[in-house]
Specification:
The chain is of the alpha/beta class. The chain contains 13 helices and five strands. Helix content is 52%, strand content 9%. It is globular and about 70 Å long.
Length: 368
């Protein structure tokens, strides 16, 4: 049955750094690269499916998630085209993709890791309704040929060291909140068992000690010798940015390596309001938080509470918005957005925070 080729509209993407695990949108590329070979890999927990185009059509293969099979794939791909002329595209699937991506990167292949939403929307664009591992791998190879997403580069070791501790800290804080609520509810029970209450109290004390230990480890990592050490010290010069906020800013944005402007950094954190109008039934609705990095957004929001009191740049904005009658939460979100703008500036421009700093007149004129 012949397939109807519908005309496809040209899509203009917003220049926002909405990446995950340092996935760079193709709109941030400086120049279009051309490759000789395009490979799509669909990742699963135990296996991964591979697809690429050959002279007689598509070639598919399935490998196990183990090191020897990674070597077999590298050997097959090297026989088809040079590694630096081969673009391999895969999705973020938990952490199952990481070992294979690092192996291919070390072998010299151009690896691109995309967000699953990109693959899903591309499948809808291609009007592909069936879904199997082979079909998904083939779609990723076609996505690589048409879109040519940007190259993925493994982050430095400090990224994993900080990110794993920050994620565990968030998990422990959530568990501690749950246990504290349980203890509060149990104490309202006149027949509460002392042994159960004692066990909850000991568990909460244990969680508190572990969180404090993680705080010390994060602080030690930030003050140690690593590629982001200077950026960490510059972030700590911003009033309102503490050790945890600085760690999240570095890990979530990978030291702002792929955010060309502060607006992109704010969009990545989900602190930019976007219009959502539809005819006459929905007008003027501009929510935030529908995308972006949720832990970073939450951290910046909490940091804005302190920055609105101690940071003169943020305090003036916060007070001005309240004087205009804006709700407190709107002023807080705007303060968090201002905070990430400042963080981007001190890291990218390589200078400590200076509350008296003002843009040069010629730059202001150019922006106007």
């Amino acid at each position: 049955m012949n397939r109807i080729q519908w005309p496809r509209p040209r899509i203009h993407e917003a220049k926002a750094c909405l990446s995950l695990a340092r996935i760079v949108p193709d709109t941030l590329r400086k120049a279009q690269e051309m490759y000789l070979h395009y490979v799509g890999i669909d990742i699963a927990a135990a296996t991964f499916a591979v697809a690429w185009v050959r002279e007689r059509g598509w070639h598919h293969a399935t490998f196990d998630q183990r090191r020897p099979d990674y070597g077999r794939l590298v050997h097959q791909l090297r026989q088809i085209a040079p590694p630096d002329q081969t673009l391999v595209v895969m999705e973020v699937t938990g952490t199952y993709w990481l070992a294979l991506a690092c192996c291919l990167h070390e072998a010299g292949f151009v690896v691109s890791v995309i967000h699953p939403t990109q693959a899903q929307l591309f499948a809808r664009l291609e009007m592909q309704h069936a879904k199997t591992d082979r079909i998904d791998a083939q779609l990723l190879a076609e996505f690589a040929r048409q879109r040519q997403p940007a190259r993925w580069t493994p982050p430095p070791a400090i990224y994993e060291q900080l990110h794993q501790r920050l994620s565990q800290r968030d998990d422990l804080l959530g568990i501690k909140t749950q246990e504290t609520n349980r203890l509060h509810a149990l104490r309202q029970n006149p027949r509460a068992e002392p042994a159960v209450v004692d066990r909850l109290e000991r568990h909460i004390a244990f969680l508190h000690a572990e969180i404090k230990a993680l705080d010390r480890e994060i602080k030690a990592l930030l003050t140690g010798a690593h590629p982001w050490a200077v950026a960490a010290q510059r972030l700590l010069t911003i009033p309102g940015v503490g050790w945890i906020a600085a760690a999240w800013l570095l890990t979530a944005t990978q030291c702002f390596a792929y955010c060309d402007t502060p607006e992109q950094a704010a969009a990545f954190a989900g602190l930019v309001p976007y219009r959502r109008d539809s005819g006459s039934s929905r007008r003027g609705f501009r929510p935030v938080g529908r995308g972006g990095h949720a832990p970073l957004r939450k951290t910046l929001y909490m940091a804005s509470l302190s920055a609105a009191r101690s940071n003169p740049s943020v305090k003036s904005l916060y007070d001005r918005l309240l004087a205009r009658g804006k709700p407190n939460k709107v002023a807080r979100v705007a303060s968090a957005r201002k905070l990430i703008h400042i963080a981007w500036a001190v890291v990218v421009k390589e200078r400590d925070f200076d509350p008296s700093f003002a843009p040069q007149p010629d730059l202001v004129a150019l922006r106007a």
